[in-house]
Amino acid sequence: MNKLQQLKTMTTVVADTGDLEAIKQYQPQDATTNPSLVLKAAQMPLYAHLITEAKQWSAQQGGSNLVQMDNTCDYLAVAIGKEILSAVPGRISTEVDSRLSFDTDATVARALKIIDLYHQQGINKDRVLIKIASTWEGIQAGKKLEEQSINCNLTLLFSFAQAIACAEAGVYLISPFVGRIMDWYKAAMKVDGFVPSEDPGVISVGKIFDYYKQHGYSTVVMGASFRNTQEIEQLAGCDRLTISPGLMQDLADDSGVLIQQLNCKQVVEAQPKVRLNQADFRWMHNEDAMATEKLAEGIRNFTRDQEKLEALLA
Asked: I want to staple 90 with a disulfide (CB 3.0 to 4.6 A). Which of 30, 99, 169, 266 is the partner?
């Protein structure tokens, strides 16, 4: 077996793309999208008819220009998600507008709207993960949605504080961003890279994985945002890994032996259990300069791509 095939025997592989043809080629279990990926997908001829459909549906709903644009974007994201679900046996992650990242109630309302749009398309909520930025407000929105049996994917996760709060909130899945963590440390330390086993992003996910397994949390750990296949190989055995088509191809082209690095039955380092209220969370997260910067940057970048999508649709 090639390394992609080997990885699938120890980790659930998720496609990090909105490209339907790539998803069909690599046959992942699940798929994830975000504003950046929806923007790319919206520019593909394959999805042109969905843009027309989204605009027509939004016009029928009426409302202000702002309301109609929100409706168009949500409908399009769901329509693309439906197409992707035709090619994967599992679930699709669809993201709430990143501009709501600091508003719990608005995030919950938008999530319920997305779930309803999927329902109108004949898609049950058990095939959808609502993707939310891992701010304190976003995590609390995730908690409220999970209480309604709507599963969530808490994204833009960089700090141990975020991981602890997500587990305490009982969210279904977290997406720690491996490559973006490495990017920050490369710049801060003025180095070209790291030995794979010493990659700060890899170490961060390994720590979270061990903490969750040690303390019996059911929250799924899904490593994301990879810069190279070495990072992926170092996390073989993680619950899930969401991987771009290019890196999946690199793994498929490699016939070497892949060694499982993470094992839920073998905790590397015991860690004391931590409980965080809002003040504790904000302080602990604030003390992590990398996480503070990357979370804010991630929300800004997703927002810029959301605005580009709206300009394209307009």
From this structure: 30
